[in-house]
Amino acid sequence: MFDDLLEDVGDFMPRKIAPEYLDFVKALKEEILGPLSGHDAVKGLRVYPVKQSRGRSYWKANVITIPVFAIHKARINPGFTHYYMAHELAHRFAGNEANHGHDFMRWFRILCPARYQHYELGYKPRLAAAAGISSKESNDALRNF
């Protein structure tokens, strides 16, 4: 149906791709990665917007997905899509076994601007707080933005 818009990912293709957001997520990935875009952890990584309830990192396929709701939520919560993408990218840098532990949080804090990191408190509050993420830190960053 919209095969000309999609990159070939071998045997794997995420379900429920939202082609109208492909350019947006590709540009956001490049913005977040910046000079890290050549890092082995994300070399050849493909990002797809999907009409699903959550994003995922598909290790073997070298694909991450960002749910459309995260794109829409940014209309009310500025930076939410940026946060969501940084979260999924942090999984790639931290490694498949890192889950949401120390290495993941270290990479998350590198990739996600401080003004958006507070969103992680809503997802993994104990782990985010242990990593030093606080709503005060995010509020301070917003004031200086």
How is this structure best described in words?
The structure is a single chain. With 145 residues, the chain is mainly α. The protein has a single domain (3-143), classed as 2-Layer Sandwich (Zincin-like). Helices cover 43% and strands 9% of the residues. The chain has seven helices and three strands; from the N terminus they run H-E-E-E-H-H-H-H-H-H. Strands 1-3-2 form a three-stranded mixed beta sheet. A hairpin with a 4-residue loop joins strand 2 and strand 3. Helix 1 (22-33) crosses helix 3 (80-94) and helix 3 (80-94) crosses helix 4. The radius of gyration is 15 Å and the shape is globular. The model is unreliable at 1-9 (pLDDT under 50).
Entry summary:
Helices cover 43% and strands 9% of the residues.
In terms of per-residue confidence, which ranges show pLDDT below 50 for 5 or more consecutive residues?
A: 1-9
Average the pLDDT over all residues and give the rounded result.
Answer: 85
Strand order within the widest sheet?
1-3-2
Helix fraction by DSSP (H/I, runs of at least 4) = 40-55%
What are the secondary-structure elements, in order, as H or E?
HEEEHHHHHH
Instruction: Domain count, please report it.
Output: 1
- What fold name goes in the CATH topology slot? Zincin-like
- CATH architecture term: 2-Layer Sandwich
**Major sheet characteristics:** 3 strands, mixed
- By DSSP (H or I, 4+ residues per run), the number of helices equals 7
Class based on secondary structure composition and strand pairing: mainly alpha
Question: CATH superfamily membership, which one?
Answer: Metalloproteases ("zincins"), catalytic domain
| Shape descriptor | globular
- Give the CATH class: Alpha Beta
* Global Rg: 15 Å
